[in-house]
Amino acid sequence: MKLHEHQSKTLFAANGIPIPRGRVAGGARQARSIARDLGARVVVKAQVLVGGRGKAGGVKIGANAREAGKHAVEILALRIAGLAVRKVLVEEAAEIRSEIYLGITNDRTARRPVMMASAAGGVDIEQVAAQTPEEILRENIDPFLGIRGFQARNLASGIDLPRAHWQQFIHIALGLYQTFVETDATLAEINPLVVTEEEQLLAVDGKIVLDDNALVRHPDLAELRDVDTEAGDEAEAREHGLSYVALDGYIGCMVNGAGLAMGTMDIIKHFGGEPANFLDIGGGASAEKVAAALRIILRDRRVRALLINIFGGITRCDEVARGVLAAMDEVGGKVPMVVRLAGTNEEEGRRLLAESDLITASSLAEAAQKAIAAAA
Ligand code: GDP
Ligand code: MN
Question: 144-188 pLDDT, tens per residue?
Fold first, then answer.
């Protein structure tokens, strides 16, 4: 789960990282009033959950409250990477001397977090990583010791930061590590961390990605989720306890278990088809959950055939069959459906489905081939 810039910065500030003064506005009038309160040159920034807002026209500097209002109107009318801008952050604009990158994420190969810094801040860090990886300095952090002062100093010296800023840089690096650990984040990033004309370090942008699996430990952070900006179907799926990811293909998939769902997608591709989605109905799926899953999959107009692959364990095949039948009544079965049931109560499941016009298959390979044929 991604946090907005203003949410990330608030968490940074709680760990002593300096951020610009400012507030969030939902309209031009509010943006003007915040700018007036700040009484300074301001920057108006789109709050959408994607990077590259600057290039997309979502970051604009205004000299006064009137200009801030004008920028807010323009930015709130934008769509950035397909996302509508519903809020803007209005902050005191920084006088920037230089831009640094500072971020932390998990390094799977090293099996520990890695803090990264680069003097090539502000721009797309993925591009720096791909083209000039030597410009990114790295320090792996021992999770039992936490970040050590010398590691932050290594980063500061590695990016040729003037010594006068080291103390502040170390303080910020420690605060960023603290935020990353406390929130169970998978990424915490300041890009850019700027050196201002007043010789101060300031976090001008902020990004945090939280680990969804750890959200149970952070009810306060879970509440920050911006349901507005997520794809409607994915949000609805989550409400029903389903994991759903829409893809580009034309064969809908309903499977129990994430591994089996991925295996099913692979088999579809193996036989020359394209899966329309990833969907894991989870263990012990009820008829109601199955019905919700079918509704969500079939809403996608590109779906020309549906493949239901259930390996009954805790999830009982008869229960799934009942869900499929209930949902078919509701959504209407215009799309051909191929069902493969195996495991707990499969005979009962097959018996229930026998009266409907579903296509049955006894193996996954057979089911995938039949689904592809039905979609042709
Ligand atoms: P992003 O494009 O989504 O990463 O948004 P950022 O918040 O990083 O802003 C993009 C760029 O706008 C930064 O790299 C800065 O160069 C510039 N910018 C952002 N805030 C300010 C500010 O307060 N003052 C100045 N002068 N430039 C800013
Ligand atoms: Mn940025």
Answer: 999 999 999 999 999 999 999 999 999 999 999 999 999 999 999
Q: Name the residue with the closest Cα to ligand 1, atom 7.
A: 205
Task: Pick the atom of ligand 1 nearest to 53's CA.
Answer: 3
- Residue given tokens 């999770």 in the structure block: 143
Pocket of ligand 1 (CB under 6 A): 43, 45, 51-54, 59, 61, 93-94, 96, 99, 122, 191-192, 204-205
pLDDT in tens, 95-113: 999 999 999 999 999 999 9
Tokens of 284: 């012990």
Give the helix/strand (H/E) hosting 196.
strand 185-196
Q: What is the number of the ligand 1 atom nearest to the C-alpha of 55?
A: 2
Strands 305-312 and 359-360: unpaired
Walk me through the domains of the chain, giving residue ranges and CATH numbers.
21-92 (3.30.1490.20), 96-222 (3.30.470.20), 231-375 (3.40.50.261)
- pTM here is 0.74
